[in-house]
Amino acid sequence: MNISGNQRRVYLAALAVLLLAVALVCAWTLWRGATGAAAPEGETLSPEEAPGVEPSGQPDAASTPEPVPSAASGATPSASAGNRVSTIVYYQDNYGYLVPVMCSVPMEDGIAKATLSLMIQSVSNDMQAARLGLRTVLPEGTKIDLDISGGLARIDLSREVLDMPDAAAEANMISAIVQTLTEFESVDRVTFLIDGQVRETLTNGTPVGGEFTRGDINLEAMEPTMSACEPVTLYFPADSGAVIVPVTRMVRSEPDVNTAVLELAKGPSGGDALESVVPAGCGLIDVKVENGVAKLNFTGEFVNLVQNSDGGRMALKALVLTCTQFKGIDSVEIYVDGERYDASAGELGVPSFMNVADSIVYDYIQTQSAMLFDFD
Questions:
Q1: What does the pLDDT look like over 123-174, one tens digit per residue?
Q2: How, if at all, do strands 152-157 and 189-194 pair?
Q3: Per-domain residue ranges for the chain?
Q4: Where does 83-229 show beta strands of DSSP type E?
Q5: Where do the H-state alpha helices sit in 146-287?
Q6: What is the percentage of the chain residues whose pLDDT exceeds 90?
Q7: How far apart are CA 275 and CA 145, in angstroms?
Q8: 82-87, long-range: CB < 8 A, 24+ apart
Q9: Model-level pTM greater than 0.70?
Q10: Helix (H) or strand (E) holding 5
């Protein structure tokens, strides 16, 4: 990549601004932890009811947040003691895709409400989301009351949510709230009140009546004839190259690992919003599962993956996530025309979660630095 002197100065300035923003957010987080920020009112969720994130492989110790304490651990929530907890926050990208991100936050009572509070537009929340290349989903000034009992989360949103610009924004907000709350082991159903009142729809017609359960995320548009189909979750890198986006596709065949990898190889249907996992012209030869290992055999074009700006790292991660979502698959091996593909060390390790906040920021800085100093 050729970069002129003026471009280098622009990149340096942009990188300096990014680093300053990161430093400010870190300083604010440390200050909030040191001052023992008060837990939000209106919710009595104990730490053992925190998100049930189950790593499907060995996490990267350098980027994985502190684990959620269990009831058996004897840990007591205490922001002032410096304890932190991992929680899953749902943001949206510039194309409207919902993106789950694992964030490390100070431990406190009412962690579910605190997690939702991170999704409300504000200076600090928007800055955190921007660091990840994402956006918050709830309107500025939204107030939340939350009660969790018997698996049901009853959430009361203030009237600000009635001023969403369109039905798409409303649907994303409701879906993000339901997905976030059902990440917690204590929640399997969600009901909504708006400004203390039961409503059937929001201003632009989005349903909010009745009980909501965890549904398909980022459901692709279906053809009218596609009835009696089954959902399968696919993982694609975002066009920014910074995050992985889960997408639900309806298929007519059995929604197993063979179907998932085949559909993944077909690429995303969302135009330029998501990146293909396999290079152009690459085909899938077969998929075999042996002793918990999914063995994927691609045609020779797969080796062109290294030409991606990140060397193919995000594409390989998407492949691993797509395969290891299925019970009984613990790891992935890739073959090219029947020969084992020699990915660099650690590329095929199963991540602790699809998107980890600190890793996203670190990878972005590394990518920008590499572009900056690649003068050839």
A1: 999 999 999 999 999 999 999 999 999 999 999 999 999 999 999 999 999 9
A2: parallel
A3: 36-212, 230-351
A4: 84-92, 98-106, 144-149, 152-157, 189-194, 211-212
A5: 167-181, 257-266
A6: 61
A7: 38
A8: 82/33, 83/107, 84/33, 85/47, 85/50, 85/111, 86/50, 86/51, 86/53, 87/50, 87/51, 87/111, 87/114, 87/115, 87/183
A9: yes
A10: helix 5-34
